[in-house]
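Much of what follows relies on a compact textual record of a protein's fold. A complete example follows; check for yourself that the lines match position by position.
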Amino acid sequence: MSTLIHKIKHEFMKVLPPTIFFFIILHIVALIRGLMIKGSGVDLPVSASVLIASMILGKSVLVADMLPFINRFPDKPLIWNVTWKTLMYAVVALVVHYLERLYEYWKEAPSLIDANSLLWSSMNWPRFWAIQILLVTLIFMYCVIAELARVIGRDRLKVMFVGPLPPMQR
């Protein structure tokens, strides 16, 4: 039984950093989106939906990292893997962002095809692409940090950012 608990703890500790990162950046995106649509009568996502989305994204990143093609350029300069992973994660973010908008229109339309047509005709595309650019920028930051951690080690990166941690007292 302790092996199962150890495995669950290990998986939880692996999913925690990307989940916290995406929780913070999705709140930033929600705040910026809220500022852009202020006064339009459109509802904003609440923290609970942002939490669920960040947990999904955090686990998705870990699953994607296990795919053989995601770490495509491990022996090249870091920019290769950072760019590749940013592109892969950005495509997923684009699809999720589009589907999120589509779902909002689907609630009003009689069918998915009608919802998609309504979305295409009434979407504020500059706002959509502004949010997408923000997401890509934040995903790029995540990929830079993740690649640095992969190359120099998480512990060393932690020490470089926050300094040596005090010894644990028992």
User: Anything to note?
Assistant: The chain has six helices and no strands. The helical segments are 2-36, 47-66, 78-106, 112-122, 125-152, 154-162. The mean pLDDT is 80. The radius of gyration is 19 Å.
